[in-house]
């Protein structure tokens, strides 16, 4: 589903170039629930931004469902991302002039879904996230945790092919965080690939594969670790 080959990203500031992703090559399958870990500054958010198709200042190859993302122009990339990807941002990225219900509805507006069905999906999602009473409020009228829930609801409502989440539960208390991770697990079992960045061991435990970045390099990757050892295959 996702294939990155030698993806590199650097930032230039004051004449010096700082590398944040170094020859990252990864394959992610549609059924995977991947956790990206690593120390602060290791490049985790940068990698997520590449996968989210928000960043185009990188080198290398990125294939998504057979589409060569590195060959798309900005509009084609944005269209593909809107159709296929849900993203939970660390800093929520809600639209300030839209209500909670309108923010949650946004991904559906890019799809060809009848109005009545859309309304039912939004109502159902508001209910699941216990936000019905808040549906007409604007983001600035919500707490940080409530804004985070709206961001999560918006990323999940259209059952994207790929869900990306950057510290998705950082502002939630542990019970809420656990409920969100259960929702992620269910979404994954229904066919959404998930890539989450987290420092939380509890959240990481929901993943089926763990990738550790250090200084922009893939330092370790548990992919394949669950495969049976060679002698078992032979016997
Ligand atoms: N817009 C930018 N301009 C310059 N440098 C940047 C920019 N964005 C990120 N960086 C640098 O890239 C490096 C990797 O940042 P990134 O946010 O990907 O790390 P991270 O692993 O997600 O860290 P954290 O766990 O603290 O969120 C850091 O050294 C950061 O300072």
From TrEMBL:
GO molecular function: ATP binding; ATP hydrolysis activity; transmembrane transporter activity
Occurrences of domain ABC transporter (ranges): 2-233
Keyword ATP-binding found: yes
Cellular component annotations (GO), alphabetically ordered: membrane protein complex; plasma membrane
Keywords: ATP-binding, Nucleotide-binding, Transport
Keyword Cytoplasm: no
Matches recorded under InterPro entries: AAA+_ATPase (IPR003593), ABC_transporter-like_ATP-bd (IPR003439), ABC_transporter-like_CS (IPR017871), ABC_transpr_LolD-like (IPR015854), MacB-like_ATP-bd (IPR017911), P-loop_NTPase (IPR027417)
Similarity comment: family membership: Belongs to the ABC transporter superfamily. Macrolide exporter (TC 3.A.1.122) family.
Name by which UniProt lists this protein: ABC transporter ATP-binding protein
